[in-house]
Amino acid sequence: MEGTVLDPAGGAPGATSASVMHRVRGVWRRRWVMLGVALGVTALTAAWTLRQPRIFAASTSLIIDVTAPRILDGEVKEVMGEERSNYWFNKEYYATQSEIITSRAVASRVVDRLGLSKDASFLGLPPDQDPTTRAKALEGADAVGLLRSRIQVVPGKDSRVMNIGVEDVDPVRAALLSNEVAAAYMAENLALKLRTTEEARTWLEGRLDELGRQSKAGEMAVYDLKKDADMLSTSLESRLSIVSERINSYNLKLTEVRTRIAAQQARVDAIHRLRKDAGNDETWAEAVPGAKDGPIQDLKSRYGEQKAACAELTERYLPEHPKLLECNRKLEVVRDDLLKSLTNVVRSAETQLAEAQGEEKNLNKLLDETKAEAFQVNKKAIEYGRLQRESDNNQRLYELVLKRLKDIELSGLLRTSNVRVLDAAQPVLVPVRPHTRRNLMVGWVMGLLLGLGVALFLEMLENTVGSQADVEDVLGLAFLGVVPRMEATKAPGDRDLYVHRAPRSAVAECCRAVRTNLLFMSPDHPCKTLVVTSSGPQEGKSTTCINLGVAMAQSGNRVLLLDTDMRRPRLHRAFGVPNDLGISSLVVGEGSLDKAVKSTEVPNLFVLPCGPLPPNPAELLHTRAFKELLRTAGEKFDRIILDSPPLNAVVDAAVLATQADGVVMVLKAGRTDRGAAKRALRSLADVQARMFGAILNDVDLRQPRYGDTYLGYQGYGPTQDEPKGGVAPS
């Protein structure tokens, strides 16, 4: 595998199965925390349960019918009749009854009957309480509300049975309260029906009086109308019939008169035309109809005879002859009589016409009066019908209300109820609460869940690098290996050379594994110079650098350790060599590389001390002389390992990373902060440093979190060199 110059601080792109298993192992590592929390919660639950008072329950079973038993005739309806056949209506009815059972009215009946408002035991007051304090407590206590809170109504499944349960600290009192609640409910149900019936009766009585007055007033209005319309002997129908007959009679007579008037008018008109056409001829009247009657014919005959006689005398005598004059005088008399008779005939025709017209006028007047009377009678008939209907309606309503009032009075005398007791409550000596076993089980389960939550929370709060998953998933680095914790009793020098002095130990084996991983990082281009650094101080980078150099030297390579930590150098102390001549001296041109390099007790392992501490380490490492020093050392040695300062403290490590083949990060297990490690990697990424990977240092293999992962490093081979626990190397 190759090193990378990509952003190593970006971390893994997402959660992997390894990270999930890492979380699972982290939670399992804190299993004792989970168990402790579970035991604590269970203990608290047990203590709370044992401190709770024992509650007893008793239940009374009632059968609630939708309607009460029908004793009276079916015609008698009760005010609160409940005739339901629909499932949802019945369900609503029983839900209503449940509310009534738990109502304040029912509870008040029980409290008043048993005197629970003065019962200190029922109210939960201490028995040894001061009388004054008890009196105030009794005054402020709500016995009704307390009783309601203890009542439970459980309807029977697919039945009309309703179970009334009451809980109390006394089993006998629980049974008593349950029975009393059932009795109070039955009494309240009956009282409610009676109250409703009484209210209905009172309303009906008032309505009956009002309807009686209205009915009487309606009858008097009908009587007054008849009296005003003169209908005491005949009815309006008869009166209308008589008026109709009169109108028909007048119409017939009016038709006859109008026919006669038409004839008379025609006769008079004919006479007027004859008179107009005759001029001075006085004989025109002879053509008048009626002129040939007997008297007129006699006059005409006499007139003719007298005229003939006068004509004969005219022939015989002179005009002045007395006989002729007498004859002419008689002729004039007869003629005058004839003309008068004819004139009377004409006047008779005109008189008959006038008489017929007068008769028509009178008939029209009578007909108009009769029609007006008919309209008036019709109007009276309408008013009479309205008053009669109102009177009849009032009478019917009066009779209906009177009948309903009698039914209510009769049904009110009944004391039947639709509720009856099936099973009375009996004292039950087994408490229903607290449920000790159930509470303990719930407490145990909740404790486990809470413990799991605490373990997850602690795992989420874990912000240090402690495993391979943290290195690979969180930091995104290649994992080179682990370095187990060394024995605390060993001297600092022994810890630095632990791999050399304990070659068969787990530490030595782990360092050889890291060496192998580094050598195979890039087989085609093996790393020549290697920078070993850390994110912060006290993470074991110097010790790891020495142990890694020892492991490489044991493989036959000539290895040079450079102490480039020019602020706190310690390689010279680890190997016991002088520090008067070193890197700082060579960079400024003092001395030679051969004199500055010191051999160690480890074959093929050499060390180049820091030398005198310079005032400007970063600038010194950035010089051309230092690069030339690295090139020269590379010609004489197979591997060069640079012990650099921490990345987050100074920039020296970043400067060295640009001049080496790669960088190895040392992370102290359980101490190196993830954020600090990411910041350190970010500084390396900014200078495009090549990262080989990270080494997890100071790993306590005895911890459960590492036992499964790194089991191969312990328990195999001789154990005399195995570390037995201790503190981290510096």
SSE layout and pairings?
Elements (H helix, E strand, L loop, with lengths): L16 H13 L1 H21 L4 E9 L22 H15 L2 H11 L5 H4 L7 H10 L2 H8 E5 L5 E8 L2 H58 L7 H43 L15 H23 L5 H91 L6 E5 L12 H26 L6 H7 L4 E6 L7 H5 L1 H4 L4 H14 L9 E6 L6 H14 L4 E5 L7 H5 L7 H5 L5 H4 L1 E2 L5 E4 L8 H5 L2 H13 L2 E5 L8 H6 L4 E7 L5 H13 L4 E9 L4 H4 L23
Parallel strand pairs: 5-12, 6-10, 6-11, 7-9, 7-10, 11-12
Antiparallel strand pairs: 1-3, 1-4, 2-3, 8-9
Helix pairs in contact: 1-12, 2-12, 4-7, 4-8, 8-11, 9-11, 10-11, 16-17
Quick summary:
This protein has 730 residues and is α/β, with parallel strands linked by helices. It has helices at 17-29, 31-51, 87-101, 104-114, 120-123, 131-140, 143-150, 171-228, 236-278, 294-316, 322-412, 436-461, 468-474, 492-496, 498-501, 506-519, 541-554, 571-575, 583-587, 593-596, 617-621, 624-636, 652-657, 674-686, 704-707, and strands at residues 56-64, 151-155, 161-168, 419-423, 479-484, 529-534, 559-563, 598-599, 605-608, 639-643, 662-668, 691-699.
